[in-house]
Amino acid sequence: MKARVTVTLKAGVLDPQGQAIEGSLKGLGFSGVASVRQGKVFDLVLDGASEEEARIAITQMCEKLLANTVIENYAVEISN
Amino acid sequence: MKARVTVTLKAGVLDPQGQAIEGSLKGLGFSGVASVRQGKVFDLVLDGASEEEARIAITQMCEKLLANTVIENYAVEISN
């Protein structure tokens, strides 16, 4: 069972890394860039679990380790 | 125009950060985790471009700044 967890900053949370990338892109001549926000992605492989069990386990992983839920949102996509 | 760029390590490239997360998840009792690979996601907002122009610009951004194409793959999703 494969899963992808995408962790992004909540709206309103300052993202200095994203701002630095935005500045660099403008410096390279990409003038149409209005905003950049950076997040993280985790590609997980889980052994022998049903999709429902996997979703429950991954939600716990996000709450405990993968995301800081005070400032970050997470989304879980499960494939086969 | 919004776009999401997902940058992931190519297969075979060592991912010590992913291995550390895998170890931590196992330490927390998630024994079913077989593999973790970490990547990056960039949420971009672009001013006034058609979807085709945006795709061309974002591909150039990936090649020049957002991804290290020696060791990383990138995927671009464009929405409205």
Structure description:
Two copies of one chain form a homodimer. With 80 residues, chain A is of the alpha+beta class. Chain A has one domain: Phosphoribosylformylglycinamidine synthase subunit PurS (Mth169, Chain: A, 2-Layer Sandwich), CATH 3.30.1280. Chain A contains two helices and three strands. In chain A, strands 2-1-3 form a three-stranded antiparallel sheet. The longest helix of chain A is centred in the last third of the chain and has 16 residues. Chain A is elongated, with a radius of gyration of 16 Å. Chains A and B meet through helix 1, strand 2 and helix 2 of A and helix 1, strand 2 and helix 2 of B. Strand 2 of chain A pairs antiparallel with strand 2 of chain B, so a sheet runs across the interface.
How would you briefly describe this protein structure?
The first copy, chain A, has 80 residues and is an alpha+beta fold. The first copy, chain A, is built from 2 helices and 3 strands; from the N terminus they run E-H-E-H-E. Chains A, B: It comes from Devosia nitrariae.
